[in-house]
Predict the structure.
Amino acid sequence: MKLLKFSEAQTENSKDKVEQILQGAMQEFLVHGYAGTSMDRVAASGGVSKATVYSHFQDKQGLFKALVERLAKERFQSVFGTEDLVGEPKKVLHELAVKVLNEMLQDEEYMAFMRVLIGESGRFPEMAQLCVASLVKPAVDTLHHYLASHTELNISDPEATARIIVGSLVHFVMTQKMMHASDILPMESHRITNTLTDLLLGVRS
């Protein structure tokens, strides 16, 4: 068994406390929203003292920001990985679209958090802007770079096309999952991913 030095043990304990706080904060934000969540509630939910919460996060906004950034990083890496997109467009674009929909449709906590974020965006626009900067922009930038590097696709505006891709996938998730429209606008996700790929590649039936 490896024995940690005192400073290392302190670091590990600090990481554990931060994780407890973030988990507690997530539950409170999901139940009470941003406005209805207090640092007292977060401390109680995380099983730590209020002083411990403030020792790691200056205020509620900083705590919410940390959650958004962590969620964005996790979702981005699970879909795009840690390196630039590489490979043949038909395979890369189709697999990417499938992965995005699967990740978003199956993660209930992520969907619930996005509902909170959108619902609070009117009163706290800076929170919504943080999500766009942390999650949407990196996804658009990555796609933009990939599309621009594949001139054989003959895409006149790679950046706008990247936004159309992201927008199409997000719209599908929002209507089907967040707005409970699966009975009103029923459609299997594979039809969206297949058709979107065909459109990008200029495939005609």
Observations:
- The mean pLDDT is 88.
- The two ends are 63 Å apart (CA to CA).
